[in-house]
Amino acid sequence: MQEIETRLSVCDNIESTIRESLEKAEALRQSILKKAFEGKLLSEEDLQITRNAPDWEPAEKLLERIRAEKQTARNKH
User: Fold this and answer.
1) pLDDT (tens digit, 9 = 90+) per residue, 13-36?
2) Are 62 and 50 in contact (CB under 8 A)?
3) Residue 56: phi, psi to the nearest 5?
């Protein structure tokens, strides 16, 4: 009986740790999203490097391309 209680206690501790970790992960996710929408994820230097990359395109063009691809896929069905 003592062994079972010990194992259940360990399971409870693990469950608590997992729950806390999930809460922290969600808070971090929200923080990252907030910074992304505020445009604060990259420094100005990082942004400039990114904009000079050969495969860079503005978000508007990317969204436009995605919409066109979705429309093409719909038209095929």
Assistant:
1) 999 999 999 999 999 999 999 998
2) no
3) -75, 140
**CA separation for the pair 34, 42 (Å, rounded):** 13
Q: Tell whether 16 and 47 lie within a shared domain.
A: no
Residues 36 and 19 in one domain: yes
The domain total for the chain is 2
Confidence of residue 39 (pLDDT cuts 50, 70, 90): confident
Q: Residue 29: what residue type?
A: R
Element housing 27 (H / E)? helix 2-38
Residues 57 and 32 in one domain: no
Quick check: helix, strand or coil at residue 73? Answer: helix
Check if the beta carbon of residue 41 is closer than 8 Å to that of residue 32: yes
